[in-house]
Amino acid sequence: MAYRMIQWATGHMAKMAARAMAERPAYEIVGGFVYNLEKVGKDLGEICGTRNLGVKTTNSRETIFNMDADCVLFLAGAENDNLAALGDVCDLLSSGKNVITTSVEFIYPKAMGAEFEQRIMNACKQGHSTFHGLGVAPGFGAESMALLLTRLSNRIDQLIFYETFHYDKYPSKFQMFDLMGFGYPPDDPAPLFSNLEIVGHVWKHSAMLVADTVGLKIDKIENFRDVVLADKDLNVAAGLIRKGTVGAMNFGTRIISGGKPRIIMQHYTRMDPELAPQWPAGDGSWTIVIEGFPSISATIEIGIHGEIHSDQACLATAMHAIHAVPYVIEAKPGILTLAETPPMWGGEAFHR
């Protein structure tokens, strides 16, 4: 019997998830929620670029809440409005549906505060449902892979995770400009990332999850954002970045314990590969560094044959969510973190 799925939102990565589920007989999409009024009433398959699924999209939350389904892939960008997204997630859980989300704010609900976490726990209890946050980076490399490597360590002085990306081909104007702040003067308060607390929403969850899992006392959390200005006009997929505005940035979170930075999670990203040569190079790679005994470095690259790396990372995120469906449905009610997931493989991908 197929898993009965609801897809919430139809953005770039969500479309990839819908196409992947449509190709797999183990998944039956029974509902689709959209925000854009122009998409309402259309077949979800048409919107997402796959076969006709016989699923008419809706923007009615009540219609979705009342549907019979096993699991919801909540693929909306919660950074626009955390509290509204939390309300939707809790309503879905309370209605008896398991929820898997790729929103970074939900990877480790404890990081958003006790009230945020408690609301999700209460909703899971009411609906006898399970909540699971995941992704790629954050949501896999910085947590699952980093924790796995600690098995090899005798002593760990510092754990560092960093991601490197070129975002010149990423088409979202909101995420690149209004959220992160590319194309703005460095001190402009308009982009959301000008607020370091919002920067912390990206990596704080991963860093806290790792620290709590290994029993590392958190003295304080430091969020940071360093920028490099474009030395020429840059025409990128999201728009025009003028000379003298932000063209590269490094942002992240440090866990301070015992007066020292013990866990660092960060992202190096550029709109031109020649910018910020002092930073680690790479496009579409994640690196885990464990300073200690033994010292360890491991790098994973996504899109190794000339593909658009950001697209490949979106696909990897979608597949992580899809492969999580069976174990989330089988899990006991409550919040299931990445540190608590059972062994799970993407073995079916060998048979595609």
Structure description:
The protein has helices at 12-22, 44-48, 61-65, 82-94, 114-127, 141-149, 173-180, 196-214, 309-330, and strands at 3-8, 27-33, 71-74, 98-101, 130-133, 155-166, 220-229, 234-236, 239-241, 246-257, 260-270, 285-293, 296-301, 334-336. By secondary structure, it is an alpha/beta fold. It has two domains: 3-135 and 312-351, Rossmann fold; 141-301, Dihydrodipicolinate Reductase, domain 2, CATH 3.30.360. The strands form three sheets. It has a six-stranded parallel sheet, with helices on both faces. A six-stranded mixed sheet has the order 7-10-11-6-12-13. Helix 1 packs across helix 9 (309-330) and helix 6 (141-149) packs parallel to helix 8. The longest helix has 22 residues, at 309-330. The protein is globular.
What's the SSE blueprint?
Layout: E1 3-8, H1 12-22, E2 27-33, H2 44-48, H3 61-65, E3 71-74, H4 82-94, E4 98-101, H5 114-127, E5 130-133, H6 141-149, E6 155-166, H7 173-180, H8 196-214, E7 220-229, E8 234-236, E9 239-241, E10 246-257, E11 260-270, E12 285-293, E13 296-301, H9 309-330, E14 334-336
Parallel strand pairs: 1-2, 1-3, 3-4, 4-5, 5-14, 6-11
Antiparallel strand pairs: 6-12, 7-10, 8-9, 10-11, 12-13
Helix pairs in contact: 1-9, 4-5, 6-8
